[in-house]
Amino acid sequence: MNPLLELKRLGQSIWYDNLRKTLVTSGELKRMSEEYAVTGVSYNPGAFEKAIIGTTEYDEEILRLMAVGLPDEGILKRLVTKVARLAADVMAAIYKDTRGLDGFVSVEADPGLSTDAASMIQEARRLFDAVERHNVMVKVPATREGLKALEALTFEGLCVNVTLLFSVERYEEAAWAYIRGLEKRLAEGMPIDNISSVASMFVSRVDSLFDRILEERISRSRSNDEKARLKGLLGRVAAANAKGAYMKFQEVYSSERFRRLKDAGARPQRLLWASIGTKNPRYPDTKYIEELVQGGTVSAMPIHTLLAFYDHGKARPTLTEDLDGALKVFSELEALGIDYQAATLRLEKEGVAAYSDSYMAILRAIAEKREAIGMKKAAPVRYSLNGFESAVGEALDEVANENFLPRLWAKDPTLWKSAPDEKKLIKDALGWVALTQVMDDHVGEIEEFASEVKEAGFTDVVLLGMGGSSLAPLVFAESFGPTPGYPKLTVLDSTDPEALGAVDRAIDLAKTLFIVSSKSGSTIEPLSLFEFFHAKLLAIKGEAAGRNFIAITDPGTALEGFSRKFRFRKLFTNPRDIGGRFSALSYFGLVPAALMGVQVSRLLDYASRVQMSLDPCAAGDENPVLMLGAALGTLGRLGRDKLTFFISSGISSFGMWIEQLIAESTGKEGKGLVPVVGEPLGAPADYGHDRVFISITLGDEDEKLAKAMKSFAGAGHPVIDLRLADAYELGGEFLRWEAATAVAGQILGINPFDQPDVELAKKLTIARLSGIGKPGALKPPGVGAESNGFGVYFGRQTFEMLHPADNDVKKMLRDFLGLVREGDYIGLLAYYNPVDRGFEAEFTELRKALRDSTGAATQFGFGPRYLHSTGQLHKGGPKNGLFIILCHAPREDFKVPGSPFSFSDLELSQAYGDMEALDSKGLRVVLVGLKDPSIDSLKDFERLIKSEIS
Questions:
Q1: Catalytic one among 8, 50, 139, 668?
Q2: Looking at the domain 381-432+610-748, which fold is it?
């Protein structure tokens, strides 16, 4: 049975927490009332603001209201009034059928008036009169003044949602305020059987705060008994608080005082559970719904929580279970010296401040939208599809007709695959869709920790990670740069001894905080780097060395165990239903960003704007996110599979993040889009007919790039231009490209959330490392020859293609490049020091020479970084890649503490393992071993290549 319908059968009402215009006009609200048993809808100011600024759905109305001279506040009031009226009309039948119990549209009075009861009362009257519908319910905060307003408005016969309740005591005050209003009304001879009210008790925010308090106490405690008691309270305070409120509800509404009102037709003020989306990844995503099921209550759900419960929720009456246990939670908090009253008062103050801030944010959004409309600003994404318009349009229509967005939110894996094992993997990988809503509730925790680190005197933060755990932090480090007063962020995602030595020499170890970042918690590179730096700090600080480390990982991983064993300063457990390359806006990206002084709330704000285009009710045929995905997937399917990016220098590292996202998501089953990032800008004649050109510019238009893009379009190439005004808009771009990649994956017919071919290179690497100390363990693979200070080794299948007559290295390389065919790309894969920018400049020159001489697109990646980025595409995508792996003998080296191998051993094993993996897939590959890691040695090789292809 549908679990939501079962809640309804049990007597619990379901209200939807996201009122917006397209929710009504698209028919989605009506559908939700029929399929999901939704009987009310609540205005969420944060979501309303993002819909204004992030979509065009209010543009026409704003333009009309501007024309009549309304100020921003007047425009907001008109917008809210209109959408509330539209929603109230949809809910009217439910209001009638339930005799005024349900079918409400709950909207806020101006929160700027929340400190003055008289002003709140006047504003509530205005709002009720403006909407002109009986089934509107006005929100007022449960402050002292708000409770006075509740009492007065109830007396006047208005329906009130008293909100921002965090404590049992404040809830009881709200209940009696409601009753006093009814009593006064009855005393005046007015009817009281037509009044409904709800008291919104916030739930998950309570656990979020108390869990932080408990975790901090656990980390400081030296008593195993005390630790056990503290751990026993984790995740239990919110439910106990709600149960405590319900016990008070039973007491108040069974009193003789209310019984007299009930005899006159009065209804109890129902408890409404607000903020019930799960914030902690350790807890089930339906936790707070399942724990608080009871007839006569209301559950207000955001979309991701509602659909999670619809998918796998369990409905049974639970609110009245173990009430004694709930009371014990309160007594245990007191016994442990944790101040319940102070914590809930803090939550109330923060809630009221956020309540007011959200209103001001909407006014700013309207002002920004007025400016954009008045200046007729261009859309942030522009297309010149050059003959592909019809194909892309048809694909977009198909995506919309398949209800892509509602099914995406419902975590419907059949959008991509139907096999049982793939369905499960996909369902467990879609947490990124609602991530901005989840992480909004963790901003305070992240910022508090960033302040702690800053105040502790750390001068540097070094992130040890790979792939999805390191690329978003790298974007932040290079796009925002050092912030005065904050530590400098360095990302170390290399096993190259030169890179390790450079970072080690650049920092003061004692004043450096290391982030060990790994989703799986077992990635060999960051764990080896951790062992290296921990051993050095252990020699300096002894057992206190752990205070220089934090971990970011999924719940239950080996890394979580290490963090506890070595007493790390902090552990962040990330939601497990988010793949690494989709984790930029999770702890993996936001914690490093905050530590270097980036305002993570602004990043999430821009992401939330884009998310408005992902709502189930968002239009499909004009949707900017779906359009991008439809274009990428369709162009790739029609042979334009080389997505060539040109990105402003200020945010150029964003290209590396996009490269991993697209390559690892789409490169499988012999299909794939090939991202080309960092290739030098050329003339139209330098490119083949397999290209799509994509520019992402920051700030003022780059005249040279704009001219080049125009010339590409003129030559018949598809061109896509994106314009960002501010680096913080990258927050939105992360989500835009994630969603677009998911759409493209559907069009290509692949599962964008797995990486089935990555493990092969890892296994071959481990096999080599396990043989360290034995003869031949680090012998280069393949067949080849040595000359002039470097060795050239071809995969066995490649060697058979070449049939070399002798060991002439120059001729062998020339013949290898002669294997390039139309539509191919060349992957230049370099196990070199990424910290030294001089190497990247040399490889860029080499890429230009290879492209100009062969006509093929070129990719570049430092190893082992690329293994976690483009490696899946290389081995699982179409067999149109030709790969040159470059490695070198070590000049300096470091042992990996506790292991029999060194970092040079690890790096070479990774290079050799990947060569063997590529060869086993029948791909064209050569490995070049240089005598040392110097730029001079690399230049010698570059000159040789250029001499053979010129």
A1: 139
A2: Rossmann fold (3.40.50)
